[in-house]
Amino acid sequence: MILLRNRLRTYFVTGYKSINSYVALDVETTGLSPRNGDRVIEIGAVAIEGQSIVDEFSSLIDVDKMIPWQVQQVHGITNEMLDGEPKPDEVLPEFYKFIAGSILVAHNASFDISFLRHEFALLGMSLNNRFLCTLKMSRKLYPYLPNHKLETVSRYLLGRSCNQMQMHRALDDAKLAAMIWIEMEKI
Predict the structure, then answer these.
(1) Is the pLDDT of residue 20 over 70?
(2) Counting runs of H as helices and runs of E as strands, what totals does the chain give?
(3) Which is more confidently placed, 136 or 15?
(4) Residue 60, exposed/middle/buried by CB under 10 A (0-12, 13-18, 19+)?
(5) What are the extents of the domains in the chain?
(6) Spatial CA neighbour of 168 closest among 145, 150, 147
(7) Which of 76, 114, 171, 187 is most exposed, with the fewest beta carbons within 10 Å of its own?
(8) Residue 21, H or E segment
């Protein structure tokens, strides 16, 4: 099921978006490389206006590809969870509308963007949004952190535990990326 909540963004009605429109996103995949045939099996994204999350998008995606056991151990998504979920040609056009005109924000953006570009290309679409990487930003702004994993950076910046969030699931990781990006923008 595709989740769209809080349709506050004006482009749904008028096609207009503010100049400061950002979408933080994350994908979960069947492996590490679209060149090796790996696919996106979950997309999570949140729209950011000013300092607030105003909308979200989330969907599992059935790509008819087996998820290796070791990959299942990372994100917890099983082959059975994808049975009956929408196919890429149902999810990606809706996601494209969600991100239209926005600057994309992701932690290790090159990974997520490469997978999304691949998925869009399979449907004859392109992804031309500009993007920002919170991983690169955190390395520059906080070189003293022991590592720059999403969880480490979010605990440092937000000063609270991420225990309520399910790490390595797309929507929660997108929310964390949004929150740390909002904090980094305050500097």
Answers:
(1) no
(2) 8, 6
(3) 136
(4) buried
(5) 3-8+19-185
(6) 150
(7) 187
(8) strand 21-29
Cα–Cα distance measured from residue 160 to residue 9, given in angstroms and rounded to the nearest whole number: 29
Task: Name the residues annotated as catalytic.
Answer: 168
In sequence order, what are the residues at sequence separation of 6 or more whose Cβ sits closer than 8 angstroms to the Cβ of residue 68? 30, 31
123-157 pLDDT, tens digit each: 999 999 999 999 999 999 999 999 999 999 999 99
pLDDT of residue 6: 39
pLDDT of residue 159: 82
Could you tell me if 81 and 61 are in contact, meaning their C-beta atoms sit under 8 angstroms apart?
A: no
Q: Which residue in this structure is represented by tokens 């082959």?
A: 79
Question: Does the structure show a pLDDT above 90 at 165?
Answer: no
Tokens of 56: 């979200």
pTM of the model: 0.88
Helix ranges (DSSP H) in the chain: 11-14, 69-75, 79-82, 88-99, 109-122, 134-141, 150-158, 170-185
Of 31, 8, 22, 5, the C-alpha closest to 131 is 22
CB-count burial class (<10 Å; 0-12, 13-18, 19+) for 179: buried
Q: Assign domain 3-8+19-185 one CATH number from 3.30.420.10, 3.40.190.10, 3.10.20.310, 3.30.70.20.
A: 3.30.420.10
Is-contact 151 58, C-beta < 8 A?
Answer: no
Distance between CA atoms of 110 and 133, rounded to whole angstroms?
8
